[in-house]
User: What shape does this take?
Amino acid sequence: MGIDAWHIMRKKISMGPVSTAQDVAMKIISSGLAAMPIVDEQQEVLGVVTEIGILGAIRQGTDLAAITAASIMVPAPLVADINTPSDELVRMLLENCCSVITVLNEKKYAGVISRHMLMDAFTSPRFSRYEEKERKGPFACI
Assistant: This one.
């Protein structure tokens, strides 16, 4: 028995499409994620801004405070449903060379899962105990 996406995902952390790239970069740094979901007011996922996108803009000499998240986001991010099994999440990350999966619940943004979150879930000494129980809440990553 494995755990599902909703057990692993981090609480909703996202930015809006009109956020500046500078603000998105600061949120990426402070969150420890390699990409930031970009969502609209209805919590529909529009894309993700990646570290690579930020670094590319910096390399081009772009003023990050002068551009929006929408202008540098990847418009078709890797997404999974909250009930996607963890082994499928691992497969998705490996096959797509992505660093995060955006998690949806009924087509609305629910959270995000990173490679590090998955590694933590599978390597934590608490994982095997957690996996055996009837779960009512998320696995708390350390």
User: Anything to note?
Assistant: The mean pLDDT is 87. Residues 39 and 63 are 22 Å apart (CA to CA).
